[in-house]
Amino acid sequence: MAMEIFTVGRGQEGYPERLMPFADMPSRLFVRGALPADEQKTAAIVGARICTAYGKSQAAFFAQVLAANGVAVISGLACGIDAAAHEGALRGKGKTFAVLGCGVDICYPKQNYPLMRRMLENGGGVLSEFPPGAEPLPWHFPIRNRVISALADVVLVIEAKEKSGSLITADYALEQGKTVFALPGRTTDATSRGCNRLIAQGAEIAISPETILEELGVKKAGTKRAAPRPRYGKEAEMVLKTLAAEPQNLAQLAGSTGIPLQELTGILLALEIDGVIAENPPGVYMALS
């Protein structure tokens, strides 16, 4: 993936118009790939690195629907919610962009390199205020969050603990006059406490992707006749067959199928995005007819 790095300075042609109203934005950006088009609607989807399968599936689902309706998805390429949002946007055949807390010549975390490559190959980009070679230092991430929110027309927080970097992004968004949405969750779930608190403080409830499209003034594309269910690999078909017999939680599925947990969560996410299974209630998976 050899893609040249370019820089654009504040006030120069190509510098994002969305950043211009705010005095604390970077004086220059380092970019690989592309920047979000000024005329395209954008939504930031952020959340916890250590998240639930439900959170991942919802991040991917919201991103997929938004991207399919022409909305560019902004996030931070972190593990967990960020990666699921980028992945969902790609599944929706849309463009997705990552604001990094390191140089754009570094993929952090390393395991997201294949994802970053596909983002670039599909017309998206990665950008940073930190020069090439800059390491992903802890203090870089809170300040890059102001760029994530500034690039977005709306911000959606999927899962966040009470003290979370995602809440920093939400705070920046509110200061910038952006609408903040939060996905509600169970009061007993640590990863939902931050979102529930945002809602209590006045954030919009993310009931569905359509609520965000409505906020953006985007009319949802007409639905097409459902395509036949795709054929999956051996492991995914095994999961579908097992869930068709009875709903199961993750531990039960792992025991029933013998599929390692890490691989199983990826399979479940893909099946849920395709609409052939659902998590209902949270933590329990069922096949859809």
From TrEMBL:
Q: Which domain of life is it from?
A: Bacteria
Kindly give the InterPro entries that the UniProt entry links to this protein: DprA, DprA_WH, DrpA_SLOG, WH-like_DNA-bd_sf
Residues of the DprA winged helix domain: 227-281
GO BP terms: namely:
DNA-mediated transformation
Q: Where is each Smf/DprA SLOG domain found? A: 10-216
As for family, the record states: Belongs to the DprA/Smf family.
The name this protein carries in UniProt is DNA-processing protein DprA
Provide the species name: Fusicatenibacter saccharivorans
Q: What is the lineage of its organism?
A: Bacteria, Bacillati, Bacillota, Clostridia, Lachnospirales
